[in-house]
Amino acid sequence: MHLAVLVFASVLPVTTLALDNGVMRTPPMGWLAWERFRCDIDCDHDPKNCISENLFIDMADRLSEDGWRELGYVYVNIDDCWSSMERDKEGRLQPDPKRFPGGIHKLARYMHDRGLKLGIYGDMGTHTCGGYPGTPLDKIKIDAQTFADWEVDMLKLDGCYSNATEQEQGYPLMSKALNATGRPIGYSCSWPAYQGGLPPKVNYTQLGEICNLWRNYGDIQDSWDSVLNIIDWFFENQDILTPAAGPGRWNDPDMLIIGDFGLSMDQSRAQMALWAIMAAPLFMSNDLRTISSGARSILQNKMAISINQDPMGVQGRRIVKEKSGIEVFWRPLSSNASALLFFSRRNDMPYRYQTSLSKLNYTTGSYKIFDVFTGKATMLKDSTDFVVSVNPTGVVMWYVSAPAKLNLHRFYKGGKLRGPARNDDAENTIPRVFL
């Protein structure tokens, strides 16, 4: 194996334009109803968990009172099944009158009064995925204006009951219509997920110009297998996806399911860490009223959040994939820092993985290492071999404070890798270098 070349983002040219609405310059953070609460509309028998204004008020209260808002979790996002089955007499969408008696505008004001933002859900097709009124081409302008009138802060636009031609027209039209309202509204597009997520059907340059974030892949489910499927797809396609991301334009691997039923604590730390490496939106879908202290501590980990929110906005990469089941991920951060993540796919026992910073192509010097989940800090020379013990399906995540800029020419010159010794027990991924 050729060891992977690490590249600082300061040498990467910004070639992709972002939607010019001024929002989501770092990955958005908040809470989203879908994975945990789905389309539960039975408020007679399940009043605490049904899709109603009370649910979103409860979550807003928790975000504002339990320390979430101060960490950046500010969006409270309604998903499917919020609307009436009929538009009003002026042709506008309207909320279900029984479940949202106060209306969406009042709910948005409730959020804003608490320093939060309200997100809402729509669909490009004739109907939403849950069978509620959609936003076909002839309704885009009126729906965009309705959302602005309600003082909504974000729109997720799904793609059920629409075809490729309608999506090709509709997603850019909605972007234009939202901007025309004069209200900054973050725009989440599900378009690429309906077109396989990859070129040639998906044009990531165009997506970055019309959307703030986009769903590339299928919905997450409350299971470790689902998280692994998403991780596999994103990093197997990292050469395509990584350049697409940046301030105001983000790949979205879907919700955080930490605090639900399907992940262990190690797996929860793994999801949080990998989403941070991916510069992914951090939308929790859980019950903040009953969340465990362990799940809360993971989701409120300040260092993991700071890595996710790094203002350079460069998405990280997998740089080592060992046959032993250990993988190493790397993300460049501001101030010549970086994040390193050691991830175990094993299911048997903690694995002691030995390497050194020089083998990961860090340059000569001493680095301050901060362990994201234990809080321990140490100094480490690039040449010193170290061992990390990684639990099964778990991670060890480091914030690495670099004493000096990397000398890229040490590693890559004349189109050939000039790194340290090979490790033939592993598969290599060499990130692109722009000199």
TrEMBL record:
Question: What Pfam families does this protein map onto?
Answer: Melibiase_2, Melibiase_2_C
Q: Which PROSITE patterns match?
A: ALPHA_GALACTOSIDASE
Q: What are its GO biological-process terms?
A: glycolipid catabolic process; glycoside catabolic process; oligosaccharide metabolic process
Span of domain Alpha galactosidase A C-terminal: 313-394
Give the CC-aspect GO terms. lysosome; membrane
Give the UniProt subcellular location, in the record's own words.
Lysosome
Q: How does it assemble?
A: Homodimer.
Q: Supply the name of the protein.
A: Alpha-galactosidase
Tell me what organism the protein belongs to.
Answer: Seriola lalandi dorsalis
Q: What is the lineage of its organism?
A: Eukaryota, Metazoa, Chordata, Craniata, Vertebrata
